């Protein structure tokens, strides 16, 4: 008898918890606006995704929409992101903004969205799936970022030199695209790549890898980071080894911490994107599609610019970073 | 004299029949009831939960976990454990993707499944011949297989698979999603093997009382190795389903599967001490986990909270298992 | 007559002990051959060799005229030797039928792999009926719900269904009630008449005498003698052969110094187990609890010890009413309990003898929470000496023979300073010499002023050991008598009182079978 009553209590508790959670969350989502825009990202943390999400959320709020943000928890969780996308479709959101962890995995899901007549757009990515077209995209071309990075490398090493590369997370196409175009540009120049490795998108992992490089190549001239998570790791490693200023540090995306590193003299050239602007434009395009209007441009390319210690003070950062302390949960 | 003892024994017999029934089925009725209650709650609080499309989504998302969990059942019934199922899924995904790209879908899938079965052989041999505890052996294999998968794939996903393969995850047969049908087939095959074959009976015997089985002439090592082979084989099937869903070979697929499959197995009434439980219960365990995460998703509960809820449910299930086991041994 | 199985000059040693020393022995078809001997005489080892569980270090085994070597229990089975061990080899979550056909499941279908539940249940029901248990044990029941005795019967059914020419039984009746033993012996006789060779190991010498055609006595790993039934003059002769010297007295005299009432139970009840139990025990007294298997004696003692809850009634000790909700409470109140199943409930088999002995008195040896191993060793050795423990205290408890294990359990409670000790079947499965030592110990404890309650199914044991006996039947107390009133017949009548009335002739059969030494 004791066992059975315990079972009953356990089930009751579980059911109560679920109901409570459901009720609480439901009330949080007051359904009075013009609908919900779904957002599906491989990751929501970090200096890239946070400003994009800020741009989307802020603009969506202005336009009168709610935002439902789904976080797959990492580039490795492709299957989870596919499932989350399916869930958004079932919830009949008004539009979906997404950044696919691996475009070839989303063909089926994107097709489902189109069958359900939900406009689906790339936000921060030029494509949503490998063989199915989305309804639009707002991004900066990763290849262009690669070209800009090459420009930066040439600017920092006019007489050539050796560089080591932190290539980004394994399998992320945005990182591999950048690197590919970067290599194209520096081919044939006096700049030589002595090492190249992928690693987790995590500052600590990047720091560890950068330290490795510094140890193995005492005469290294430049370190390349795929984005600012890697850049910050590199900068900290250089700081710890006392090599700021002696070794050049090059990466993409200017987040808050990247800025600080640059001010401290540990970052030399950053190809800045405008993730907040990307987010805003994506939300606006979604709005147009929801209202049945054809957007003026199906694929918007948001310009990049190079930030160095020289122009750091004068750069307009509202399109690059979210306001201090903003998190996707708010 | 015979009469009197027979009467007393008969009285106890009747009493025991009722508690017999309760113990045998109480747990088994409990979980399906909870699943139904859960569905009712979600149906009530979310207006899209009970739509066909959402139910299909649940079926597809649950299919891989189901196949892996049914395989895991074989091993847990022998009082073992296979923590390497997640990495097996990753390895099979990579092998199958390469195979499909080079030799076509049918052959590629076969190669993947064969790789999965081989993992089972290795697991089984390490545990029986080298006498390593299943927990340790499969934990080590988790690491080895994961590294192998990453090595083979160069760390990046393998794309370029024919569309036909990826479409399979979205196909429907008689209105049911194809992956769901696959899971159903695995369920039927597992049930058949466990309940209706001699090998199945031997699995229950080895888990229920290994010494009794051994002394009755059952070759326990052979039974255990076969159990691990079945486990990895079904994990491979699950991997094919998952790989089709993401239309690419992913060396990092299935990371959460060891925990989720054990959770489904334990929730489904299979005792971690072996010898007790059935895949039908595990099917409900899988349903519970999948419905819970889908429902909470639709209600916008963060995935972090979902992790907490699943973990709490697992503790609850194991605590209940302990109560039943302790009850029995006090007889 | 040609032997169907024989061993020649077989030896086997384990670390530190020579278990078998050049034993030669044979088993003929159509005989019941009993194997007797003290603790550690080598009976179990010989059985394990014949059953294929272990291999001898030296010597030959012949089966059906050819030399054989068994690498696994499966080999022995295939050679026609089926063994039933002392430990219950039941798979608890499977049905009775599945347990009976374990290892040889009836199959059909492609590749002979499809298990035929129907055929298994039919075969199982048939065997159970031949054992006269068809109505008592349903082939579909889950094995864990059976009583210990019924589980044993299922194991025997498993061996019988093999129709093997050689059946070995290791202490088969140890856990059976008298009626169940009677049934088993009947079956064995039947099989012997049909030509089977049966090897039967038992401590119940009366039983051995009643069924064996030949008796082999082992002592110290050697075969001392093999006697035909006609050559056995009495159990006394067998006992002397087993221990190598005459055992003049099995039962020491009863303690004379009886003191005040120590424990008093009034109106105790527990639903489904027992009702309105009232009795008391005094210091220096040995109280016996008699009754059939299932009468509720163990349930009562467990409730006194707090292992099970009481639904009603009171327990008073030293004038104070006790509220024992857990064994810890009982221990604090000075009550000790020696369970029926010493292996699973009395010992931690993986711990050493030392650790088991001091388990209940740890507090005394660990001031400030740190265990003083010197104190432990001294106390443990002293108790082991008093109990004539013949094992290795430093080794894991599981390495000891049944008798020595029981001494560990007793020793544990002796050390605990409890003043009420409850012994539940203390000498079950223990050889004659060890039994005598335990009886001596019980009287020593009584002599030291402790109160002892002994639950036993052997009337002879109770009658010779106790000052008073209480008889339970069907959950109630039906009779209570003092030493001068002890009468086997009266005890049996009370034991059956809760059941349909019994013709006199049947209780006579009981008196014979209960094993009086002659």
SSE layout and pairing:
The complex is a heterotrimer of chains A (330), B (331) and C (518).
Chain A: H1 2-28, E1 36-41, H2 49-63, E2 66-71, H3 78-90, E3 95-98, H4 107-115, E4 120-123, E5 136-139, H5 142-156, E6 161-166, H6 173-186, E7 191-197, H7 203-216, E8 222-225, H8 228-241, E9 248-252, H9 256-263, E10 269-272, H10 275-290, E11 299-301, E12 305-307
Parallel strand pairs in A: 1-2, 1-3, 3-4, 4-5, 5-11, 6-7, 6-8, 8-9, 9-10
Antiparallel strand pairs in A: 10-12
Chain B: H1 2-45, H2 52-77, H3 85-103, H4 105-128, H5 134-153, H6 163-167, E1 172-173, E2 176-177, H7 178-196, H8 198-208, H9 210-215, H10 220-246, H11 257-267, H12 279-298, H13 303-329
Antiparallel strand pairs in B: 1-2
Chain C: E1 5-14, E2 17-27, E3 31-37, H1 43-50, E4 58-63, E5 66-68, H2 73-78, E6 81-84, H3 96-100, E7 107-108, E8 114-115, H4 117-130, H5 148-161, E9 166-170, H6 178-193, E10 197-201, H7 205-211, E11 214-219, E12 222-228, H8 235-243, E13 261-270, E14 274-282, E15 286-290, H9 297-304, E16 312-317, E17 320-322, H10 327-332, E18 335-338, H11 342-346, H12 353-357, H13 362-365, H14 373-386, H15 402-415, E19 420-424, H16 432-447, E20 451-455, H17 459-465, E21 468-473, E22 476-482, H18 488-496, H19 504-513
Parallel strand pairs in C: 3-10, 3-11, 6-9, 9-10, 15-20, 15-21, 18-19, 19-20
Antiparallel strand pairs in C: 1-2, 1-4, 4-5, 7-8, 11-12, 13-14, 13-16, 16-17, 21-22
Helix pairs in contact in C: 4-5, 14-15, 15-16, 18-19
